[in-house]
Specification:
This is GcrA-like regulator. The chain has helices at residues 9-20, 25-32, 36-45, 61-84, 137-143, 148-155, and strands spanning 113-114, 123-124. It is mainly α. It has a two-stranded antiparallel ribbon. The protein binds a DNA duplex through helix 3.
Amino acid sequence: MLNVPTWTTDRVELLKNHFEAGLTCREIAASIGVSRNAVIGKLARLQLTRGPARAEPRPTKAARERSRKSIPRLQYKILQAVYENAEPLPEVAITSERRCSLFELSNQRCRWPIGTPGAEDFCFCGDTPVEGMPYCTGHTRLAYRPGSRQRVARAY
DNA sequence: CCCTGATTCGC
DNA sequence: GCGAATCAGG
């Protein structure tokens, strides 16, 4: 493969002329025989734009990654910690001394529902939650069972 | 959904 | 420098 430079002088000339003529980037790209992104990229490097640049520069990819992934990462860490001392889940119900009503729920009460909604004895676990989680340790392990998602997905 | 131009960043 | 991936906006 010969290494033909993409942006030869005449191609750049074509690019500029087509741009002046008001062709869209896609049309310019088709005319020259390159991708639309190539045209857009080259125009950007030539400082050629049609409208005023956007006021707010995009946050860096790193920043976007951070804000997008930080919460899932954190929760993954928490779950890791919950499963750190992994024993088989007990078959017996997880009991709580602190059962509470819907209105007594808070960030400091396990939100695991117990019983049938609407029933007289319906309530919530109410125990102290794992930090950053909506459930206590036992119910966190019940709620996030490894592999359960896949099994459920296949069932549908 | 389709499209557009603009920006970032790994190559 | 290049352009794919990704973005915001229409």
